[in-house]
Design goal:
Blueprint: H1 3-11, H2 16-35, H3 40-49, H4 58-67, H5 79-93, H6 100-107, H7 118-129, H8 138-144, H9 149-166, H10 173-184
Helix pairs in contact: 1-3, 2-3, 2-7, 3-6, 3-7, 4-5, 5-6, 6-7, 7-9, 8-9, 9-10
The chain binds 2'-deoxyguanosine-5'-diphosphate and fe (iii) ion (FE) (3 copies).
Organism: Lysinibacillus alkalisoli
Protein name: bis(5'-nucleosyl)-tetraphosphatase (symmetrical)
Domain HD: 18-132
Length: 187
């Protein structure tokens, strides 16, 4: 599917604000892919589809996790932890995406995981630093993303976990595995 077709397909499935976020992730992911020598087209596709399931019904997503025997660990964690895996499922089933790296980038965009590919890192980072993100510290993350993909990814997952701790939320095992993996690599 062409970029314009993908964009009009997702536009009807989310509020305008989320669509603008998606456009921001797309532009940022393209810049990061160019900067770090990754495939621009694949970054663009993954970015456009990354939040496709953001507004899907939670019970329906849990049902799909069981039906397709996806990662059962997300059950009971709520819709935020479901929209990545289900987004990847929709990308495959509804949009015919077969590229595993694109599907993984969508699947793990919320939590990260150990052993992320450069494309997965690009989508995770772009999701966090796209122009409409306004939180304190985002400028520092944007600066890191100008220089080093791994250091930027490390800073982003640390920011994520810090936020979860500060707001007294539980940390999903993959998020922690992502952090541990990057800290072992001394980023
Ligand atoms: O979909 P977006 O809003 O663009 O961003 P996202 O998919 O990266 O994150 C959505 C939410 O998921 C965000 O509010 C924080 C939450 N989240 C990320 N990692 C974890 C988490 N929530 C819990 N409980 N545990 C996690 O490890
Ligand atoms: Fe998301
Ligand atoms: Fe994110
Ligand atoms: Fe997002």
């Amino acid at each position: 599917m062409e970029q314009s077709q993908l964009l009009s397909a997702i536009k009807t499935r989310m509020p305008e604000k989320r669509y603008q976020h998606t456009l921001g992730v797309m532009k940022t992911a393209v810049i990061l892919a160019e900067r770090f020598g990754e495939d621009v087209k694949r970054a663009e596709t993954a970015a456009i589809l990354h939040d496709i399931a953001k507004y899907e019904d939670e019970a329906k997503m849990e049902k799909l996790i069981r039906e397709y025997q996806l990662d059962y660990r997300v059950l009971g964690w709520g819709s935020e932890l479901l929209h990545g895996p289900i987004g990847a499922l929709y990308a495959e089933k509804e949009f015919g995406i077969k590229d595993k790296d694109i599907l993984h980038a969508i699947h793990y965009h919320t939590t990260g995981r150990a052993g992320m590919s450069p494309l997965e890192k690009i989508i995770f980072i772009a999701d966090m630093i796209e122009p409409s993100r306004k939180f304190e510290g985002v400028e520092r993350l944007r600066k890191k993303a100008e220089k080093d993909l791994n250091k930027a990814m490390s800073a982003c997952i640390r920011h994520s976990l810090q936020f979860l701790i500060d707001t007294k939320q539980p940390i999903f095992p993959l998020s922690l595995a992502c952090y541990n993996d990057l800290m072992n690599g001394e980023n």
